[in-house]
User: Fold this.
Amino acid sequence: MKIIMYAVLVAMSVSGIPALAMDDVEITAARKKLDSSKDKPAAGITTEEKAIIYVATVENTAFKPLENVTVKYNIFYEDVELGSTAKPVVKSIKGARAFASILRSDKVEFDTEAITLGNDSLGGNYYFANGGESRARDKVVGVWFKAFDAVGKVIGEYANPSTVSKKQTWKD
Assistant:
């Protein structure tokens, strides 16, 4: 088995294919709730809103310091309308953060822009005559981060869930 693996690595290096293609940075992100509010105005509708951010961690996994790194992100979410019969619309918030230098094996953190998610519900025995949903809950569909070097080459990427990069379109 070791001989076969060695032969594959030698063949790849002779053909010009890099044997080990690694990202220069590793990106992770954790969701953080900022605040929430609940309101029950007239007509039996309960409205709840919560603000969230993502705390992104960027780690330099290269064997050298990285200069002029820009991390861009897209947060995709469904904006659901109370009483609507239409399919929810997927919207996105995008942003970026630039770092002059990230030292070898160093980690830097930053917060994304806040996003407000709503949760509306029609209370009691009320219903919509058009058959629309009596509950509307906004939700995050996914987050997608990309790190770029000074010349614009992608040096790291993070998507959660991993399918978000296939189902959504990156917006610069």
Q: What stands out?
A: DSSP finds two helices and nine strands in the chain. The two ends are 44 Å apart (CA to CA).
